[in-house]
């Protein structure tokens, strides 16, 4: 193996694959990344795999001699990140799994392990295949991913439930306290019928890649009953699907509302961020007082032995007055994901779910459960 590549390219692609390197690997070789050097294609392919999530990425380089080797991910990543931005020269010993890196700063040798010890990334050969626009996927992930659960005991809630029908994609995520549902229309000719739950960790990596994706080609999706593969340009993410029945979230969303409020999203967010400083001191609870006659919304916090705060703003209100309380973080996270200048808050009572929706643009529903407060 012998090749020359730029420090910038190698550093970028090492940081992409490092995210699927397990911190406590079951096998020593999984702490490494697989480096495949292709002389015919003049490309370097890097692969990482934690036995659930796999990431593969490739970039062009000047290859004199092909080969394969696994090298310690963290060690190589840390060395390359600190090198000057220039071409780096790599060569492998003929007798042992050692790679030599030469640059103007000096020479480094890193001991790896044979590529034959590295597991193959799972493939989807007999499942469904579809092309989906990058915008549709990114839209769904931005609107739903934040609402997944971090509780590993509720495994299925740590993922995003994806339902696809021809030209329609639905992304849903809940942690039991709030629910985010995004409907995305895809006009890239997608013909897919799926109902699966994809791990949040894999989708965060996909979102990260999509944000820097420069290509115009749609994303290729391959599904079978246990696995999904996303392919975008020269990058691939593969992950095992989450098992278990996802909650029937559609039945949680009320069909009718007695109260409705339309308000400027940024104004509401700014007020919540300010009053949230006091809410953080106590229990993160903020009270919303909806006044139909005055056409106002008031936010208030009572933090015993710390202080209190109240802000009032104008809003378009229909329905009777109501006091309702929420976890301030849940409200803020939902508002950040809603992309329109104005949002609508709909609710029935102080103990039933409230719904936040954008007034224009993305078709998104954010349901949040209120917190009971003593009058």
From TrEMBL:
An example Gene Ontology molecular-function term: 3'-5' exonuclease activity
Gene3D superfamilies: 3.70.10.10, DNA Polymerase III, subunit A, domain 2
UniProt keywords, alphabetically: Cytoplasm, DNA replication, DNA-binding, DNA-directed DNA polymerase, Nucleotidyltransferase, Transferase
DNA polymerase III beta sliding clamp N-terminal domain residues: 1-122
All copies of domain DNA polymerase III beta sliding clamp central, residue ranges: 145-248
Subcellular location, record wording: Cytoplasm
Record-linked Pfam families: DNA_pol3_beta (PF00712), DNA_pol3_beta_2 (PF02767), DNA_pol3_beta_3 (PF02768)
Domain DNA polymerase III beta sliding clamp C-terminal: 250-371
Keyword Flavoprotein: no
Signal peptide range in chain numbering: none
SUPFAM superfamilies from the UniProt entry: DNA clamp
GO BP terms, alphabetized: DNA strand elongation involved in DNA replication
InterPro entries in the record: DNA_clamp_sf, DNA_polIII_beta, DNA_polIII_beta_C, DNA_polIII_beta_cen, DNA_polIII_beta_N
Entry's Gene Ontology cellular component terms: cytoplasm; DNA polymerase III complex
Family stated for the protein in its record: Belongs to the beta sliding clamp family.
Quaternary structure (record): Forms a ring-shaped head-to-tail homodimer around DNA.
Function recorded in the entry: Confers DNA tethering and processivity to DNA polymerases and other proteins. Acts as a clamp, forming a ring around DNA (a reaction catalyzed by the clamp-loading complex) which diffuses in an ATP-independent manner freely and bidirectionally along dsDNA. Initially characterized for its ability to contact the catalytic subunit of DNA polymerase III (Pol III), a complex, multichain enzyme responsible for most of the replicative synthesis in bacteria; Pol III exhibits 3'-5' exonuclease proofreading activity.
Protein name: Beta sliding clamp
């Amino acid at each position: 193996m012998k090749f020359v590549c730029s420090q910038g390219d190698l550093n970028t692609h090492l940081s992409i694959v490092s995210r699927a390197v397990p911190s406590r690997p079951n096998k020593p070789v999984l702490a490494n990344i697989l480096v495949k050097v292709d002389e015919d294609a003049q490309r370097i392919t890097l692969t990482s795999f934690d036995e659930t999530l796999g990431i593969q990425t490739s970039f062009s380089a000047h290859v004199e001699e092909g080969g394969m080797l696994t090298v310690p991910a963290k060690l190589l990543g840390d060395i390359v990140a600190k090198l000057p931005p220039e071409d780096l020269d790599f060569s492998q010993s003929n007798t042992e799994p050692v790679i030599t890196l030469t640059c103007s700063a000096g020479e480094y040798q890193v001991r790896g392990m044979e590529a034959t010890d590295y597991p193959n990334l799972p493939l989807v050969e007999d499942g469904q295949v579809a092309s989906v626009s990058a915008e549709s996927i990114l839209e769904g992930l931005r609107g739903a991913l934040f609402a997944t659960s971090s509780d590993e005991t509720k495994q299925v809630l740590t993922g995003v439930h994806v339902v696809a029908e021809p030209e329609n994609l639905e992304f849903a995520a809940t942690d039991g306290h709030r629910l985010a549902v995004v409907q995305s229309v895809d006009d890239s000719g997608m013909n897919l019928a799926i109902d699966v739950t994809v791990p949040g960790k894999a989708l965060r990596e996909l979102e990260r890649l999509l944000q820097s994706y420069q290509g115009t080609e749609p994303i290729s999706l391959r599904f079978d009953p246990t696995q999904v593969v996303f392919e975008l340009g020269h990058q691939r993410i593969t992950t095992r699907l989450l098992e278990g029945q996802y909650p029937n979230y559609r039945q949680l969303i009320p069909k009718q509302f007695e109260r409705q409020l339309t308000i400027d999203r940024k104004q509401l967010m700014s007020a919540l961020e300010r009053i949230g400083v006091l809410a953080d001191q106590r229990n993160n609870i903020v009270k919303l007082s909806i006044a139909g006659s005055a056409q106002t919304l008031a936010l208030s916090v009572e933090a015993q032995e710390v202080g209190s705060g109240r802000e009032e703003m104008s809003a378009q209100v229909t329905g009777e007055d109501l006091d309702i309380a929420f976890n301030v973080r849940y409200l803020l996270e939902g508002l950040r994901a809603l992309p329109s200048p104005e949002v609508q808050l709909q609710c029935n009572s102080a103990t039933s779910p409230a719904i936040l929706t954008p007034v224009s643009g993305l078709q998104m529903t954010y349901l949040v459960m209120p917190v009971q407060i003593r009058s």
